[in-house]
Amino acid sequence: MDAELVVTPPGCAHLGSFKVDNWKQNLRAIYQCFVWSGSAEARKRKAKSCVCHVCGVHLNRLHSCLHCVFFGCFTKKHIHEHAKAKRHNLAIELMYGGIYCFLCQDYIYDKDIEIIAKEEQRKAWKMQGVGEKFSTWEPTKRELELLKHNPKRRKITSNCTIGLRGLINLGNTCFMNCIVQALTHTPLLRDFFLSDRHRCEMQSPGSCLVCEMSSLFQEFYSGHRSPHIPYKLLHLVWTHARHLAGYEQQDAHEFLIAALDVLHRHCKGEHCTGRSKGEKLKAHGVSLPRPCGNLDPPAAPALPLGSAAWQWAGCLGGPGSQSHRLLPGDDNGKKANNPNHCNCIIDQIFTGGLQSDVTCQVCHGVSTTIDPFWDISLDLPGSSTPFWPLSPGSEGSVVNGESHASGTTTLTDCLRRFTRPEHLGSSAKIKCSGCHSYQESTKQLTMKKLPIVACFHLKRFEHSAKLRRKITTYVSFPLELDMTPFMASSKENRMNGQYQQPVDSLSNDNKYSLFAVVNHQGTLESGHYTSFIRQHKDQWFKCDDAIITKAGIADVLDSEGYLLFYHKQFLEYE
Fold this sequence. Notes:
The protein has about 575 residues and is α+β, with helices and mostly antiparallel strands.
């Protein structure tokens, strides 16, 4: 019987001189005090004491001797001189914790030291309240067996179809299927789940929607071609968002917001108890639109600015108001005007900050608030809401990458209207802190912080006491979108809703690429949802429940458009 030979790194033969007596305890103390420094006191101590004992500087790749108390810079070789003079051949780098051997003349690896370094690093992160930033994958016994019996690796090519998988319609669930297709093809969300980053915080993992999404990603990228049956996902959505329960057709936009809300809460380990979001809206006389339903929702009443109902509905309550989806405030009392109050993967990807500037018409004092949002709802021409023309007007002109024929409404037009100053009128006076009395004012919305994924909801379903219809106005949307004109920082360049491009505006920070489009075919009473998703650059596919077909870019751009998903082209590390 042949014995299996396991080859491991030989390691450094000079570590024996260090691994004596209480070496583990001493090494932990060095990591705690001089490398990771979890507490504020430890960081202050490190800043004061960790200087080169020769030249007195903090920089130049500072190292600490592992045999005695000595700090020396690596760049100017002061630590080398100490090692040669004292024959202390091991030192630790104080930025990343690597061990250097002066006899081997290289950084060395030792499994025991690596375990201690990781443990102390996790402790430091926990003390700083940032959680575990990254955890390496260690295969289980079962996974090792699977790897042993499946030595072949999948190669991802430009023509690869891994990740494309149809979804069975479980009875008017096309609204769910198209949103699932968009979410499973969101690049950062895909990378998060496929790298096994989710750590369940729920007491019962079987009721965790995030765990089910993780399983869903595994199913989508398993290579199986047969359509997947998302029965468990549907059951969990019914359980945690009761207003979506049942087999009647629902609104894809409403499902998206409900799904993000449940995912956000389950990431934090919160159970979605109490009334559902839809029930809270109905309690205030506000219902979200149901494009294919059978019930007429009541007209939205005027709501006081800043009220709970206004925060949930995300609107001013009157005709002509600008709408956006506000996030509910945290139960722990954190302020809603902080768009970065949660670091879960959902908020990291989808949450942006919307700045609202209310200007008094008498003293011109400005009151500014910043609200987090998951999506932007945009009014369309053809609705009962007045939509003034914003297009440059010349046939054949190009705005923000959009082919702009005369009379065609573009996504840029809708965004210009959304961010234009709006006169609130005499019926909506606010109490001005400068005038100490109620005055008329104007309100303007701009983007304070852009999300990684920007979702635009084109308001195609109109509900009022007298009118209930679908708006079929064609809106041209681009493959690439520059959000710079709609940033709060660009407000000074805005004149009466128009934007004058600054000469030095060459930054790519605010540029987005289209990666998914959700469409609704049919009427308000009877319709069907489909989606287009981008698999690779310039490779698009149409997802119609269980059927996946290849689509051209023209098919995507010529579609009606209901939900548009854009991903940032360039990401910055924070």
